[in-house]
């Protein structure tokens, strides 16, 4: 009998990703003083491997190389090997990803970086095959060459490390504060992004095709500010193409990270919490703007997927679903024509196959990723049915397919709860209740927020993540700002002042622990924590918003709610400092441009006075929620219990009951309008503002 494998140093880790590697023959260490001191003591270079638990190519490299006894022996003899979960330590990931991008011109995961014992990088890449293949050096050969280079070429390594550090420092340099953003700057940024628009398939850029949610979010706000209808048409076309493509799970709801093709058909099957959190508000906004039934359905189905499959019993949202199941990428999702025909049944087989784009040849390695190439109207026409009949038949077929798929082995779910990603999903869920009127989305959002505030905010430290109840490292600037923004969205959903109070506390802690008083920007890592190579600031909007652009949005919202000018000044400083580089490359600052639009839009202040449980006031709220007005500030003042909200938001003191029933007070661009007594009148006024 073979001996049971012995765990390495990752056995004590909480991260699901690190746990996946605890029985590798590689003598892995988690990032920490013990491993770094061993590297210095033994004068060995460090092999730093960064990935995450739902990453397909991380799994491939693990199986090919990290489970290989020969490669493990080379690593164990010549290197100190450290595993990092990029989702737990985005600071390390960002720093060393910048290094690899500078060295190779590309990045991604798994991220493979080689460091001196004092953490200076001298080589890096992403995936390496075990043997020479596809123009890439074999990993075993590469390891021996790098070990020899470390021993024999110390001067060259030191010079390369110095140049890389200079590059990182230049990337961080922002210069002084410049002028405020203006309409012309917003227009130019929008036009630069639109040059990347794909008129055939929608979206920005070519294959591999990412949703680019932050860029689309800016273009949505650009449309709100500039008013160019063709921009809205491009957004609508993009949202529909994604919704009908394989990037969207046509049976279970939710979006994959990206597609390998340019037509949104073949996804990289993993589903991440943040992608879905950022896409839901786009679909909700499109429904508000154009009444799209498709966008309404996609937003609801995506939220339903998250509530069903990604919310922990105690409230937090899990981080992601793997691309693989049973060791095969996409196995959970794909179908043969025969399977679809058998499950749908003889009466519905042809309709289901046509509706879901299923063919004998398939669209993915001989199988079919389900898509929705036909509208219900075209489907009905093809099968000589009314649209209602076609929809009923298709719904029955979809339900049958769901039941069968539910019996399959599901992909691995990473049950790590990450604060910043949870903040994004709390916001999306709160907006889902506002726009769709579904209270369960609010209840899920509030439950998640309470979990984070009760378990991950410990004293004056907000922790980054938790797995099985155990917290990990202290949080980063994006965690504080994302959660604060989510709490403000919750406040505008249930009007509980406790959310507003908690958001203010988080921003006070962000100032206390992350603010650089010299330039008014926020560091990525708290000032009292170590940071390798450089103490970076959270500058660039990438797949996720940066800590600084999130903070700017929070400060703008808090200023409008509290009238405290410090918040406005914080946002203004961030916008002015980043504006120069944001003009040059709006793709790297897309969420910052969204904040700039919100800074420039004339304020729209809506205060409702009355009993929150009064159906008439609820109708007024529905009228307010029905319009896409991202600049809107919304307060509800209950005359019977108003002391707390008047202390937190002085604007509320101005307004009182006016006659019988609730009253709406609407001020736009510093000018107040006559009081409004009906939901219909309020809806008409808000519609005028939106169209104006």
Note down, in words, how this protein is organized:
By secondary structure, the protein is an alpha+beta fold. The protein has four domains: 9-172, Glutaredoxin (3-Layer(aba) Sandwich); 183-326 and 413-600, Glycosyltransferase; 333-405, no CATH class; 604-691, Glutaredoxin, CATH 3.40.30.10. The chain is 51% helix and 10% strand. It contains 26 helices and 21 strands. It has a five-stranded mixed sheet, with helices on both faces. A hairpin with a 2-residue loop joins strand 16 (465-467) and strand 17. The chain is globular and about 85 Å long.
Q: Hey, roughly how much beta strand do the residues contain?
A: 5-15%
Question: So, CATH architecture of the largest domain?
Answer: Alpha/alpha barrel
Q: What about the largest sheet? A: 5 strands, mixed
How many E strands?
21
Report how far the terminal alpha carbons are from each other. 78 Å
Rounded Rg: 26 Å
> Largest sheet, order of strands side by side?
1-3-2-4-5
What coarse outline follows from CA principal-axis ratios?
Answer: globular
Which ranges are low-confidence, i.e. pLDDT below 50, for 5 or more consecutive residues?
none
Count of spatially separate domains: 4
- Kindly name the structural category: alpha+beta
Q: What is the level 1 CATH name of the largest domain?
A: Mainly Alpha
CATH topological fold name of the largest domain: Glycosyltransferase
Q: How many individual helices?
A: 26
Helical residue percent band = 40-55%
Q: Give average pLDDT, whole number.
A: 94
